[in-house]
Design a protein that fits this description.
Elements (H helix, E strand, L loop, with lengths): L2 H16 L7 E2 L11 H11 L9 E2 L4 H13 L3 E4 L3 H4 L21 E4 L5 E6 L3 E6 H4 L3 E4 L7 H11 L4 E5 L6 H11 L5 E5 L24 H11 L13 H11 L16
Parallel strand pairs: 1-2, 8-9
Antiparallel strand pairs: 3-4, 4-7, 5-6
Length: 276
């Protein structure tokens, strides 16, 4: 974990606890070949070291393939999908998927991805932090992938299915996923699923607007410095803590933060100056 991922986790945890809700933990490990050995266990240990306690069992997407197959088949039965043989190389100069395979079926035996046929129309929602956001998904990205050519389900389908299956009502996450939200809403509507409320905390950036998580100076989370790092994150979330909490326990800090949480104080943008 890096400071940006801790920042999002703390915001999500506080929002759930301040409203008497449950905080659910899901390991999104669809792409098994790219998963670093032991990374999931390391994340769980780090969250626990910072006092972040989740409710219920940890859900792992690698165990939920049947749910994704069922959702895909429901869309296919209504002719809302099509098979696409286009490679990334073929599409690298396109700003959006141009619909190449939508009306022209690939040759038999060709490896294909499954795409959702997206119709024009504006998707608009009110984000609890970023305000009104709108996007014409068809114009922005075109027909989106639901299952890749290697048969791995896409993030888009998996999170929409999992959010509904887990009864998620509120989502707090990084603003790097803000423009992905209308695509999720479009798919939720196609599947007849409930729409959660969204809140996107700002992505931590350096002064030049480069994403901190992608920077060579990305700040690592240090469980040995859990208290001062947690206090730093709370300050960045619009919760500057009283000086006395610098000598408090993690439990005491969490009690204070939950009691003082206000999503309206979270900044829309945030630059983090990093030394080094």
């Amino acid at each position: 974990m890096h400071l940006g991922s801790l920042y999002s986790a703390v915001a999500s945890f506080l929002d759930a606890r301040a409203h008497g809700g449950r905080w659910l933990l899901r390991i999104e490990d669809l792409d098994r070949p790219r998963e670093a050995l032991g990374s999931a266990d390391s994340i769980l240990q780090t969250l626990q070291a910072f006092g972040l306690q989740w409710d219920g069992e940890v859900v792992r997407q690698r165990d939920r393939n049947e749910l994704y197959v069922d959702a895909l088949q429901r869309l296919q039965s209504r002719d809302l999908t099509f098979e696409c043989a286009c490679s990334r190389l073929q599409l690298e100069d396109e700003s959006r998927y141009p619909g190449t395979c939508r009306l022209r079926a690939p040759a038999p035996g060709t490896a294909t991805a499954t795409r959702l046929a997206v119709e024009p129309g504006l998707i608009q929602f009110s984000d609890r932090i970023q305000g009104t956001f709108r996007q014409d998904v068809a114009a922005a990205v075109g027909d989106t992938i639901l299952r890749r050519r290697d048969r791995v389900f896409a993030y888009l389908l998996a999170v929409v299915v999992d959010d509904a299956a887990q009864g998620v009502t509120h989502i707090v996450r990084g603003a790097d996923l803000l423009d992905n939200t209308p695509r999720q809403i479009y798919l939720q509507r196609q599947l007849g699923l409930p729409l959660p409320a969204y809140a996107h905390v700002p992505v931590l950036t350096e002064p030049d607007d480069s994403k901190l998580a992608k920077s060579r100076r990305s700040v690592r989370v240090d469980v040995g410095q859990a208290l001062p790092q947690l206090l730093t994150v709370l300050s960045m979330l619009g919760l500057p803590t009283p000086a006395v909490l610098a000598r408090a326990t993690l439990a005491e800090v969490w009690d204070w933060a939950i009691g003082n949480w206000d999503v309206g104080r979270v900044p829309k943008r945030l630059n983090l100056r990093v030394n080094g």
